[in-house]
Amino acid sequence: MKIMESAENYLETILVLSNKGDKVRSIDIVTETGYTKPSISRAVKSLKESGYISVDVHGYIDLLPSGRAIAEKIYERHRFLSKYLMKIGVSEETALTDACRIEHVISEESFDKLKEFVRTLEQNS
């Protein structure tokens, strides 16, 4: 199932924040992304209604299995793409920005082949 890029970004942000060991709240997403509270509130409501996250009575957000799967896929792409863009000489700022764009549009096939190609290069060096 294809979801919107913005939803993928929110799920990825929730994953990154939760990986820091903190409980995630809407305000944490506001702080991390710089988006407005109303925007985050709408996004959280939509992600909850779509079955990607749960929100407890204290406002803490957890990824549900479907949301975690999407977030982990996008985050893996982001880390891989930014790392290897920087390795080929792209500035960190540009690599991070470009990786954030590419991670949403690259096909599974192309991403898998890139990973395979890099693995082969690293094994042969």
Quick structural summary:
This is Iron-dependent repressor. The protein is mainly α and 125 residues long.
Write up this protein:
With 125 residues, the chain is mainly alpha-helical. The chain has 2 domains: 1-67, Winged helix-like DNA-binding domain superfamily/Winged helix DNA-binding domain (Arc Repressor Mutant, subunit A, Orthogonal Bundle); 72-122, Diphtheria Toxin Repressor, domain 2. The chain is 71% helix and 5% strand. It contains 6 helices and 2 strands; from the N terminus they run αααββααα. The protein has helices at residues 5-19, 26-33, 37-49, 65-87, 92-105, 108-123; strands spanning 53-55, 61-63. Strands 1-2 form a two-stranded antiparallel sheet. A hairpin with a 5-residue loop joins β1 (53-55) and β2.
Strand content: under 5%
The N- and C-terminal alpha carbons lie at a distance of 38 Å
SS field, number of helical segments: 6
Largest sheet: 2 strands, antiparallel
The CATH architecture of the largest domain would be: Orthogonal Bundle
Radius of gyration: 16 Å
What is the CATH C-level name of the largest domain? Mainly Alpha
Helix percentage range:
over 70%
Silhouette: elongated
